[in-house]
Amino acid sequence: TQLLEQSPQFLSIQEGENLTVYCNSSSVFSSLQWYRQEPGEGPVLLVTVVTGGEVKKLKRLTFQFGDARKDSSLHITAAQPGDTGLYLCAGATGTASKLTFGTGTRLQVTL
Amino acid sequence: GAVVSQHPSWVICKSGTSVKIECRSLDFQATTMFWYRQFPKQSLMLMATSNEGSKATYEQGVEKDKFLINHASLTLSTLTVTSAHPEDSSFYICSASGMWDTQYFGPGTRLTVL
Question: Looking at beta carbons, which residues of chain B come within 8 Å of A48?
Answer without folding.
Answer: 102
